[in-house]
Amino acid sequence: MQDDQRLRTDEDLIKQMLAGDEAAFTMLYRRHQGPVFRFALHMSGSASVAEDTVQDAFMIFMREARTYDAEKGRVGAFLYGIARNCVLRRLAKDKFFVAIEESAAGVLEDQGLASGREVVIADDPLSCATRNEAIASVRLAVLALPARYREVVVLCDLQEMSYVDAAAALGCAIGTVRSRLHRARKLLWEKLRSTYEVDKDRCRVDAARCLI
Q1: pLDDT tens-place string over residues 184-204
Q2: Residue 49 contacts by C-beta under 8 Å, 6 or more apart in sequence?
Q3: Which of 11, 83, 94, 187 is the most buried (most CB within 10 A)?
């Protein structure tokens, strides 16, 4: 039975959910809750904001699932688009950019790398401390980016989303995603070079490693 459930696509699950199948919604939630949470956490730097975003996003998703159009993007992109609006509304309401909370930092470390790779802890305490300082610097640098640049870094570099799906999530053209991401990486490099020795050509890779 579990194998049959794994074979069901997100599109199938949406149809079943709209037909009244509560188990289908539960499966969609389990599949996408983690990525949506990480997206909101990286966007806000706050575990509490991320938790609220997940709840709000899936409530809205239940109401708006009928508007989902597979031709415009995947279900994940549709959910990210909802989550993005929830985060931006929350930040606008609170009128602050949250510094990374200790609890949020811990959650990020527990999550491991966005790509699923394990975090490698250095045996040398000095190396470990240096790496931790770099991680903190990169996280803060991303949080300091304007929202339109922060979201493309989070989606494309951390969540490893394609430009097509990122464009669907953000409701913009693929070219806009590309140009914003290029600008965002440049801004990150400029912010980091005074505190973190980073090669401009490797900015994307180092930021992705440090931001989790």
Answers
A1: 999 988 888 765 554 444 444
A2: 40, 41, 87, 90, 91, 98
A3: 83
